[in-house]
Amino acid sequence: MNGDSGEIILYQNQVYILVDKQASPTRKRYTVMHELGHYLLGHLGETPLSRSEHACKPSEEQAADKFAIDMLAPACVLWGLHLHTPEEIAKVCHISIQAAGYRAQRMKLLYQRNKFLSHPLERKVYAQFSEFIRQYHAGKPGNF
Asked: Which domain covers residue 102, as residue numbers?
């Protein structure tokens, strides 16, 4: 995979996500979600070649990264859990400390804006995690 931790391939109308088997479990999780983001955001196009054989635009990489972190560490859920540090986020969301660090930086801005649960989809995500949030605050944390 040319040093990449993963890639997505469209071959004979089938989509495959390849992941470096040597990567840590948290890295594999993030990589699968990142590559799934490329697929769901329409970055593959119609050719049977892997994305790595095409010049992927920086904006597409950023969009796939945003998709991955939004899925693995939803901001409204982190807000509900009162998580702030990369260590807290990494532990609860089972993501790498590096990914959690980026999320913690973004959360600082979001906490300053204090506009959580203003979008209907965000409220829906929060509602879906409400039992997890309740258990976390009761001292019985489960897994994301």
From this structure: 73-137
